[in-house]
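User: I'm new to structure prediction. If I give you an amino acid sequence, what do you actually give back? Let's try with this one:
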Amino acid sequence: MVGAEFRNPNGLPCTVSILVVDPIYLGRPSNTDARRAEIARALGRVMARVGYERASIVAIAREAGIAPGLVHYHFSSKSEVLVALVRELVSGARRRIDARLATADNPAAKLDAFIDALLARGEDVPASAVSCWALVGAEAVTQPEVRAQYAAFIGELARELAGLLARACQAEGRSGEGSKAMAGAMVATIEGYFALAAAAADVIPRGSASAMARHMARGLVLAQPARSK
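Assistant: Good question. You get back a string of structure tokens that encode the predicted 3D arrangement of the chain. For your 229 residues, that looks like this:
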């Protein structure tokens, strides 16, 4: 704040205060988005342990290391936190997909990379994310906002997989006309793995999901009829 002096229409001196804003300050991002993301991830960790219904605002706040009032400050309801969590999970999955696809150099490798990004376990996949995504799918049945986010991402996966499968078929001299149906089958397989990992993990040998899904995709590609000359 600085002062500036001038004379009014009557010739009398006046002093006004002028607010000077530091342009560097204007460029600093608010911590609101970071705090919202932190709260959403805390819900995910709580959900992985006790489910959505038992994930109270108090439990979420405790997991995030903040007061419950701060959760209410950033979110109007627990369902709004869940919608934010879905966005966080989708963003994380998208980053993994893009990173792995960038290292693949042929259609078969890109198909494998896509599946690995969703099912392979690694340091870039939080342990709670697997169970959490299965629970998100369950909540999508009854919560319209969650369903919209969930369905949009599943649709995106199916379309991208269809393209990858079509190109893999082309590389093998196979028809890619069935790529949409193949993609639907693969998305169902991937989502089924998430559901089992959350509810009956012992059914799936540890570390086998990605390898088996890759073999399934490969089998679907090779089962397509030869492409017409």
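You can read the tokens as a compact description of the fold. Here is one thing that stands out. The longest helix spans residues 144-171.
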